[in-house]
Amino acid sequence: MFQIVDKQINVEFPLGHHLHCLIAQIPNSLGLSSFACKLTDPQPQWERIRSILELAAEGPGNLKKLHFLLLPESAMPAEHVDEALSFIDRCFRPNTITMFGVEHIRLHEYLDILKKYRTDNEEALASVLKDIDAGDIEQVPVNWAVIAIKEADGRLRVFLQAKSHPMVAEETIDPFHDLYRGKVFPLLRCTPVGFNFMAMICLDYIYRDLYQSNINAVIERANELFFRTRQRLDLLAVLQCNPKPEHQAFRDVVNGFYGEYLAYTPGVRDTVTVFANTSAETSGLNVKGDYTFGHSSVIIHKSHKIVPVSYPEFASDDFGDLPVCRLRFGAETRLYYFNLPLFHELDPRTTRFPLKVHGIYRPEGRTGWIRLEDTDLQPLGDIRRTAPACPLSPAPGGVK
Description:
By secondary structure, the protein is of the alpha+beta class. It has a single domain, classed as Nitrilase/N-carbamoyl-D-aminoacid amidohydrolase. It contains 7 helices and 19 strands. A 9-stranded mixed sheet has the order 1-9-10-11-12-13-16-15-14. Strands 8-7-6-5-2-17-18-19 form an 8-stranded mixed sheet. Helix 3 runs antiparallel to helix 4. The protein is globular. The relative contact order is 0.14.
């Protein structure tokens, strides 16, 4: 069963001011090893990720205001996780949260890491130990993610979670090559400022069967949080390595999450959902059709009222006439830096945009990043006069 556990963290976000998020839309080079899906270029990939960590630590311009750094599913080489956490511990500013997906490892290796960070992962550790005790599954691969939090006093907290629902390539008829299904997901609750967030790994967002639903469990927990404390789920981060990030299944869940068709859902009405996907240069997965990686996005409720715009690097729409506002990025390798909207609705008379892109970085050389100039981000005509109400709406055949 999908279990959400509360974790209190000491993070002091600025009062009454929006937070800032950086999506690292970078490529994965994947290949099937003897037991799992692994990165074929772990050292170059680590050098790329380290350059991103160094950029975040340096904080040029307003990047020093960074609060959330998101890297995609399976992006981090497993052998460099400790090095990444050590760098974050030494160099990142307090009140910074980093989320990254890690390539597959075996369950017994994941168990060792849980034990290493058991202080923050007692429930996940107990769940894995119970599963191992019930069957011979130590060699089963695990798709997992790390949430590293540099607290206000400089202490590093490390939370781990395993993917609960595999894609078709992560399931086989042989149970010893099947993917381990995680069952414990942390809900991070910031104090003294009431800000609550979670992370999910790709298809965990859409996992549904006849008896349970991950996303429904998230909504119910957020509603409970609202009715007990008047707090909400403020941020839901979805880490992806997916050639079909806008598939009908994702769109259906977005529709139900924000639509309030069956019940009032105050716990998630103002949730900001951030989809952090890999770039179009991702390789190693057989993709059928004309799907592509990339197109990370930010989704908020329609009450925030973002008008349609279209730029070479990003555009906004309503995701095919859904009750949302969506900021949709391109498919290239990029770093996208933007603000997370405040939880409250804007005055309908205001001209302010609740969601703004503060900077976009493109790769320069092998490990460098250069910020795009304003001249690279000119709108594609006057979208309000020349474009339809939903410039990125899908064709009648469905969402791609």
